[in-house]
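[agent] plan:
  1. take the single chain provided in the ticket
  2. run structure prediction with default settings
  3. attach structure tokens to the ticket
  4. add a short note for the reviewer (M.T.)
[agent] executing step 1
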Amino acid sequence: MAEINKGSVSGTSAGGTRGTKTLRGASEEVVGEAREFRDKISDTVAGASSGMRQQAAEFTDAAKDVASQAGERVKEQLSDQAGAGADYVDNIADTMRRAAREFDAELPIAATMIRRAASKVESLSDTVRGGDLQDLISGAQRFARAQPAAFFGIAVLAGFGAVRFLKSTAANDGHHVGSTQSEGGSHAQYRAGEMRGA
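[agent] step 2 finished; step 3 output follows
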């Protein structure tokens, strides 16, 4: 048994050296394969991150394009609405001038003041038509701070003008509505007579 132990020991010692060399070779081989695997993963991750960066850049560009298009549409709509607003303000100026003509005989000073206000309102419509919305708002704020009485007066006159315009429009529509109501009333009376007769 001693020989077997010796043989095993000597085999182990001889085989141990051989085993150590084999173990070192195997571990170096495993380390080499691990490095290759790590390099492949790094390349894959780098490629994936590059692809992700490219997709993110494309997505960002697409988002910028959409935002730009939306901004242009908003600007177009604001421009259209500014044009409509300018037309409305022109109508107010015209209404103020008509009101000034009515005051000419009785209160010429008031007529003069109304005409001046109408000129200011008309210049405001020109500003609305040709200017930037933000510039217009800040200009109106500056005017209101600098001339609060004039601003209030213009607002009141514009209100009176709008009320007169609405009343005149309602009066014109009232003639048509009245005739329709009388026809509708006679039709309703006829239908009521049918119901009684039936």
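[agent] step 4 note for reviewer: Residues 83-197 form one domain.
[agent] ticket updated
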